[in-house]
Each structure stands twice: as structure tokens, then as C-alpha cells.
Fold these 3 entries.
Entry 1:
Amino acid sequence: MSDKKRNVPVLRFNGFSDAWEQRKLGELGKVTTGKAFSSIDFDEQGEYLVITNKDISTSSRSQNVVTDRINVSDKNIIEKYNLNGENILVTMDGVNLGKTAMYSNENALLAQRVGRIQSTQLEFVYQITSSNNFFMTMRTLSVGNAIKHISLSQISNYSTLVPNNEAEQQKIGELFKHLDNTIALHQRKLDTLKQMKKGFLQQLFPKNGEKVPRMRFTGFQEEWEQRKFGEMVNRLNKTSNSSGLPKVEFEDIISGAGRLNKDISNKFDNRKGVIFHPNNILYGKLRPYLKNWLHPNFKGVALGDFWVFEASDTHPFFIYILIQSENYQKVANDTAGTKMPRSDWKKVSNTNFLIPTEKYEQQKIGSFFKQLDNTITLHQYKLDQLNILKRSCLQNMFI
């Protein structure tokens, strides 16, 4: 008999062998909701945060949010709706219906139409409520025309297979809490790196009206010079239907990451596109998305909404970074009067941009951002692998 038919998961901690049982959420914890606070009582200087559905946008572990505040003196209301301790919050209406979050804050009160689950096995229950199956079930059960909503009884009656032994529930909950915390740590590192890159883009390129950047590599003092973009690059237009070269399409490039979202080394067909060579820059001219890519050793065919640039007397990695800068993006995003939101080559190519006079400084800037992009890509890979590991654990440790 298969494990599924015996109601046991594929992967299990040692020492547990009993079949899992069907249980409702209302049996695993206490399900309640908040109070209908009046918006006219909100006060920016209020002592308590008011946690509403708009504060729950995704499954997460959060401690603080920026939201409405209120002053409350009634001790019974404070005691009943205070969000101290550990809680699972469930969005009961609106666009985020069915989304959940862990939340704990003794200076916050729960508003009406937000479900609250309290349990002695909260970490285990949280994995149930943050699953796609719970989310889709709540969406299916929702009723209403303009605004869909679910009820407390629908949350309480959600049924799933769980271990009968609370010790097994606790072990599973602790494992996923550790996984979630590790994923959150890597996400914070990744977000910090992306913010760091954004900051360097602002500091390593001159501001409007200035001739030198505010941050600079040692040894360079000359003012930057104005150059038309069309003089710094050659826009390639040679088309080919060669089946011997891999094809890159718009959706293959991750927006703003400078990397592909999949292996395209075997993506061959007879469609025509622009041939690109190592160190050529692919720029997705379709607005408002920034999609650009440069690979030092890759040759292929760009299909669709791309400009393919070959650096003329400038360093390719500097051009690659220049098109991510604020000054370039203002020009590229200026699509007023066009039927389709695509960058205007005539406008872009005739625009002057400041660049270092020394090619070595261009190279230093390009190499710096290349290393930063590589670090971002590495952290993104680690985060992706952790999310894959969590999905695998959920599939194999739950029924």
C-alpha cells in the first residue's frame, strides 16, 4: 500500500509512524476576528496600530508595519484585540483575500475582517494556512459581488491531514520556521545588495548640472565629457535565421538583473533576429521594463523587442551600466505621443550623456558593477534554491 493511501507523508522524522488524521483548523487552534474600529477615531499619534487587511499582502513573518493608529482606553477592548503573543492573520476580504502572515506586536490591535488563529502548534498551522491549497480554497469559497469575502466558519472548517502526535507537529513547525527565517535572511541580503547598487548608480554618475560624480575611483580627476549615445555605440541590425545559434527572447531576461531566467543554450529554431556577439549589449526597448543583458562569451540571435549595441570607442560594461542609470532611463522612458510604450531610438541616440574621458575609468566602473551584479546573482541563486528546497519539503512532509 502506498504512503498516500496510508495517510502518511513521504518524508518523516524518525520515531513517528502513525497515520495522519483529517482535522479542521478550528480543532487545531482558536479562530477569531477583530473589532470594527471607526476611521474617524484614527490618530497619527495614536498609541496602537490598527492592523487591517491592507497590511497583509503576502505570506510573511512581520513585526511592524506602517499603518493607521488609534488611541483606546477600554481595557476589555485592548485585552481582546491586542496582537501580542504569536498570531496567524488571514485576509478575509479584498484583493488579498486568503493571504496569511505571522504577526506579533503588543502595540497593535486587530481590525474586523481579519482572521486570527492562535494555537499551541502555531508554526505547524502556519505552514497549512500559507499553502497554495489553503489560499485557493478560500478564494473558491469566497462570496460577494463588488468585494469578495470569506467567513470565520469557512476558515475554521478548512480541513487537512495532520499528525495526531503534537510532538511531530512541533518538529515539522520548527523545521519550517528555520527554513522561513533562513529564506527571509537571504531575501534581506538580496534587497540590501539591490539598494546598494541603486545607491552606487546615483553616486558614480554625475548629477544634472555636474561634470564629475560624487564618488570616484582613486586616481581620476578629469571632468567627464558630453557624448551622444549614438556615437558611443553601434546599433546592430544584421538579421539571421540561423538554426545554429541559440535564441534570446524578451521573456528570457530577468528584469533589472542582467541575467537570463533559464538555460537557452539549446534553444534553436529558424526565426529571424539580430545576431549578437560576446560583449554586445541586448536592451529591451519595450517600456516600462528595464531588460538588458551582456555576456562576455555568448553569441546568439536576439528576437523581438531588442536593440543590440556594440560599444564603439567606449567600454562595453560601462555602456551596460550607463543604460541602467537614472539619466538614461529618463530619456528611454519618455514615450509620450507614441502608441506603443517603446523607447525612441532617434531620441535616445541623439541625447548627450556624460562619460569619463579615460577608458580605464569606464572599465573600472563597468567592472565594479559587473562584480556587484555577480554577487546579486549569487544571492538570488541561493534564495531560489532555498525556495525550491522549501517547496520540496512541503510536498514530501505534508499529505
Entry 2:
Amino acid sequence: MTLLLRFALPLALLTTACSGSDSTSTPQTASTPATPVVTTPVTAMSLEERGAKIYKRCRACHTLDQDGRNKVGPNLWGIYGAKAGEKEGYAYSKAMLASNIVWDQETMDAYLKKPAEYVKGTKMSFIGLKKQEDRDAVQAYMLAETTP
């Protein structure tokens, strides 16, 4: 037994000294691997993508496709640059027919903000989009989808 203690103690000390670890560091074992830091990149939604989401409110009444059908509201294909009330096959209000509006970004912005105020007597019952950034996003989407 003394022979065992005489060789075992120095052997244990030698293995600890040669392992390169000291008592202040935390040894890593197979059960505690280093955990990599994973960061998820924040993806910003483009103006058109945001507009597409907001436009979902409009699609119950309007289509955007070329030769698309009219619904409760007129099809909006080619709306920019067109005179208000001239889309064939849609029964516009007298107010819209008399408005003399040519749709561009400025007139569309004003209409989308408060339709009933911009064209008094319009058939469009939508209350409007209060936020400028929402109107800008919808217009970016509409321009991309309806411009020939």
C-alpha cells in the first residue's frame, strides 16, 4: 500500500501539471461545448412589400390586373396618368365624373388620405389612410402593379 501511495500521488500531480489547466479556469468537457452566438439578421420590408400588405384592405373592392374586372370599385390597372371617371364599364359617381382629376402621386395621395373629403360625393366609403408612410407604401405597390 505504501508503494501505491508513493507512486500514485506524484503521478496525479504530474498529470495535473502537464494538462495545462489551472484551478482558476473552467475546463470544457464534451457535455458543455462552447455555444456559438447566433444573430438573426433583421430584414427590412421594402416599401412595395409594405404597400402590398396595406393594399390587402383595398382588394375587396379593387383589382390591379390588366383587363381585370371591376368590383365594388373600378379596376385600377393604368390608373396613374388617367383621368378620373373614365374607366370603361364602371358606374362612377357624378362627383367623380365631374372632378377633372388626373391621377398622379399627388392627387392619389390626397384621395387616399380622405377620399370623401377630396371628392365630395364619391362612392368610395373607405375612411382613408392617415399615415403618410402608409400612403407612400400603397402608392409604391400600386405603381409597380398597375403601370403598363
Entry 3:
Amino acid sequence: MVRFVDVPGMQRWVRMTGLEAAITGIAAAIEADFLRWPEFDKSARVANHSEVGVIELMPISDDRTYAFKFVNGHPGNPARGLQTVTAFGVLADVASGYPTLWTEMTILTALRTAATSALVARVLAPQGASTMAMIGTGSQSEFQALAFRAMLGIDRLRIWDTDPAAMDAFERNIRPLGFDVVRAQSAEEAVQGAEIITTCTADKAYATILTDDMVGKGVHVNAIGGDCPGKTELDPRILRRSDIFVEYPPQTRVEGEIQQLAADHPVTEFWRVLRGDAPGRTSAEEVTVFDSVGFALEDFSALRYLADAIEGTDVYQDVDLIADPVDPKDLFALVADAAAVSAHI
């Protein structure tokens, strides 16, 4: 039997745990796994692109546990009443190859993405940062806001989106939670006075959400929107004068903001900063960019954290997903009766 967490089960778990507690717990799991980065068998995600979106498989394992996530990204989906991003994930036992957990990951991905952003910002953002600009207020935005408050104490937000309805929804969801929100009239206005800038847009095209003149000294840019070839958000001049931090360079150079730069442009892998092998922020005036595209290690961490957290709860059900004949060498026994019926037709 395999533990299965469906959407109602995930909702129950989040209510039981609390959103901010879930985010900080996942962040701690991600940090712990980044610290043992060399132990993982890693690869860039396998992506199938179409004119309207991308479908991806994101695998990773250590010597005990294998994980993968199936995820899509279709920016045109909301016009059809569908979500831009959906996902599910699996944990499996390396020793047997048997899956141990199967779960929805649309909600869980939003939690782990926010947890990763805030974990990185806690290391790279300027000391005493109190205000974050959010360019793009879609499905990820509330999770990002909660993560930055839980992990950095930031509760002042300056927001802008090309879709007024998206800003309406964000304010409706976030203001009752105690945030101070300023609704800007442009991206340029939104970034004024912000020490952290989060860009999270879904356009599947080269775009310039932040121009060079919009990013002053000492700012940390949390660029989480770029996640496929041909999709960017930042003016490349920002990148050339910044210190850039990434998850897994072979994937980021294809999908991230740095696809705009030379293949040998220097970047720093974030795990090296956590382990003390590379510097993070080195001065108050430095501009840091987290060129995040989402990496399978973060899903692995979120899945293993969830697997432990749901133990002994009612948020999952056991599903008979794996064929299990009495004789493991006699799979046919499970369908022999069907063969007998066919023989008499």
C-alpha cells in the first residue's frame, strides 16, 4: 500500500500545521538537504515544450530515497479557467524501488517555492530589510509574502501587476493577515524604497520586468518567475553588475535569467554559501540576484518533510497502487481469471 495525500488531505494538513509553520518547516528541510548536496544524484529536469507551455519531470535521489515531481507551466490556462501550474509528486524507497508516498504538489510546490525564496533571502538580503516589492501578484504571491514575514520579519509590501484583478485578489487575501500593502501604479513605483524585489510573472516570453535603472545598490532580487528557455524577467545589465546565486547551474543556464549571459558568466551555487565554501553578500552596496528556477532537491525536501509530518494523522489514505501477487514471480496470477474468460468467448 502507498500513502496518498489528495487535495482535501493537503488542505487539512496545512490547516492543522499552519501556513507559516509549514513554510518554515519545509525551509529547514531544504536547508538540511542543501548542506548535504554532494550526496544527491542530480540532473536537470526533463522538459517537453509546446507552443502553449511546458510539461516537466523533476527527479532526484540520495542513497535511500528517490523523488520526482510531475509539473506543468501553461501561462494561457487561466483564460480557460485552468491553473497555470499544477503538480503531483512521489517518494520511493531506493532499496526496493517501491513508492512510499504519492501526493498532490500544486499547493506543496507553492509552499516549497516560498520556503526556498525566504531561505535564500535570509542569507543574501541586506541586513535590516523591512520592505519587499512584489512584481506579479499571481498564485505564488501570498505564499511568498507569508514566507518572508515568517523567516525575515517583513510585513511591508509594495505590489504591482499588469492585471488589476490579480492585485485585488492579493490585497483581499493578504490584508486581513496583518500586512501593510501599498498598491503601486507601475513596477517602477513598486520598487521604490524596497530592499528586496520579488519578480514572479508567468509570461512565456523574453520580457523586461525590471530595467537596470530600477534596481539600486544594496538590493536583493528574488527572481522566481523564469523557468523555461525564452522566458526572462530581468534586464541583462542588472545581471552583469550583480552577484548571481543559483540552485543547479546546468538547469539554470538553460531556463533562468542567466540564459541571457555568456555560458561562462560566473555564478555561485547556493549550497556552497550555506556550507561556507563561497561568500554570500559581502557588502551593504552589493546587488544580489537569486536566479531561481526551482530544483528537484527542494521537492525532495518538501516531500520527505510531508511524509514525516503526516505520520499518525488522517490526512492521507492507503491506496493499492502496486501489484503484489502471492508469488512475486507470477504476475499473471492476478489476471488469470480474465484469460480464462477470454478463452470461453
